[in-house]
Amino acid sequence: MTSYFLSAFIYLAAAVIAVPIAKKLGLGSVLGYLIAGVVIGPLIGLVGEETTSIQHFAEFGVVMMLFLVGLELEPKMLWEMRNRLIGLGGLQVGLTVSAVTGIALWFVEQWTVALAIGLIFSLSSTAIVLQTFNEKGLAKTEGGKNAFSVLLFQDIAVIPMLALIPLLALPDLVEKAKSVASSAAEHHEELSLVVGLPGWAYAMVVIAAIAGVVIGGHYLSRPLFRFVASSGLREIFTATALMLVIGIAALMSLVGLSPALGTFLAGVVLANSEFRHELESNIEPFKGLLLGLFFITVGAGIDFGVLFNDLGGIVAMTLGLMALKAFVLLILTVIFKIRCSDRWLFSLSLAQAGEFGFVLLSFTVQQHVLPVDIAQPLSLVVALSMFLTPGLFIFFDKMIVPRYEKTLNSREADEIEETGTVIIAGVGRFGQIINRLLVANNVKTIALDHGTRQVDVLRKIGTKSYYGDATRPDLLHTAGIEHAQLFVIAIDDTERAVELAKYIKHTYPHVKILARAYDRGHHYALKSVGADIIISETYHSALKLGTEALKEVGFHPFKVEQLKAAFLDVEAKSKEGLYQAWKNSTEDNKYSSDYVNLFMQLEDEIEKAMSGDREDGHTRTERGWTPPPRDYTKSLGSSPD
């Protein structure tokens, strides 16, 4: 028992140390896990033979991940993405299998061995790619969506691959296996419901298992979850969620199917369930921990002895495989018209071999398709390609994205042939509303934005705007800033916004500056350089939503207006004091103890104002409200408090 505790401590300690460091260095959590595994495994030998056993357990993290992916996909959504799923995914698998098999035939004599290698290397790492997409916010990009479609098809394609591989068995390996079969059976016997069944019976069992998952998930899961939820015990709901995932994975294994595919199917079935979000919140922590453990075991499982015996060959195979897969994916981007940086994101993110490669390698050895001396270096190729994948994402961030941003922004600024009373810098979601309001009231505006796509989209819907960097003095001169009355700053870059306000106030002091602030610090910085009117972008919307929340929990609208007015009054009175405290602080610590103390006093004042019963006159907003009649609650069917 002590050895299990020590192993668990070593794995967790390695993750706790390596992952935060990797994140701070911009390497991503996946590379942190992989490095941690290499350090505690091959380098210093803290873990050893138990790594393979732990990896089988940690692979359950992949199963949980696909269950959560399924929960996010409604059947209708799957149908809508069928073209990318079947077309893009099918072509990727088909072309990669063909290319790898063709190359492998140069090095091995048996075509069955070459085909098995092609099947193994055609898959990519769902775990690494989706984890990195989520961390970097790439899942909603065009490249991310297409990559997800391919990964989804690959996961589904594992089933026919598992069915095909036994048919590729080598007669020599089968004969050798028969001589040790009896002794091996004494030590290990895999549970299965389909061993020895004829083909038609096996097909019937598989269909029954899949039908059971679909029908049970649709009709039986809801009554079960309602029954469990009625207990009010969160831990029992967690146990139920784990029971569901583990049970489906076990059923799929018993009938010889992929547990990951079974849980994915169950997730899709439950995507419309009212318990979906509760299931996600309960499974997510286990998924994250097990996936991290899986990545560590991949790093720890690298056999440096086998690697150094043929270092050049294994590295060449790894790099050649990644280059080949990237080339195939680039061809598909041309066919399916995936453009710009999305093309490279799609190609680079899927260039590695995947975790299911380990599963297929193990299965091919068990089914006497690949000899062990070939399977060992191939497993290193899979592991190394996964290890190098975070580096491809770093290359994408540092080299590809800036290049395309530079290309997009290399467009010459538009010629501005008119002037306006108001110049608006930035016509995103914030600046658009300001521009529309002014134009609707016949106020002449000049709207500038340095995003080419944004300007082009606005022109398509009839909103006149100009491409150009509003911080350029020559562009401001062309826009007629000398004769403008107002300058609205609504750009996203906080530093550039402050510098722009400072320049305009110094060069054109007659122009009033109206600016959007990102937060309190940005508000104070804009005020310090002379901006005349500053509005925090979320302040009033948050206040509005807060007042609606008070109404929903039972406060009468008249009372809510009083509370809102009191809140605004206290905030207005404290605004100048907080600004002065911020202004008098050092550059290194703008939020000094004096500022913090004033802010805490502000919170106390707000609390007092909220709890007091106001007797003073109403504000202008409150005058529009008629106090409720004495017996208004009777009409609502409730008694007064």
Which range best describes the helical content: under 10%, 10-25%, 25-40%, 40-55%, 55-70% or over 70%?
55-70%
Instruction: Work out the radius of gyration.
Output: 32 Å
Which consecutive residue ranges, at least 5 long each, have pLDDT under 50? 181-188, 614-618, 635-641
Strand order of the largest sheet: 3-2-1-4-5-6
> Major beta sheet, specifics?
6 strands, parallel
Distance between the termini: 61 Å
Residue-averaged pLDDT: 81
Which structural category fits the helices and strands? mainly alpha
Question: Which descriptor suits the 3D outline?
Answer: globular
How many beta-strand segments? 6
Query: Helix count?
Result: 30
- Proportion of β residues? under 5%
Characteristics:
disordered C terminus; about 650 residues; globular; mainly alpha; single chain
Describe the structure.
This protein has 641 residues and is mainly alpha-helical. The protein is built from 30 helices and 6 strands. It has a 6-stranded parallel β-sheet with strand order 3-2-1-4-5-6, with helices on both faces. Helix 1 (2-24) packs across helix 2 and helix 13 packs across helix 14 (259-269). It is globular. The two termini are 61 Å apart.
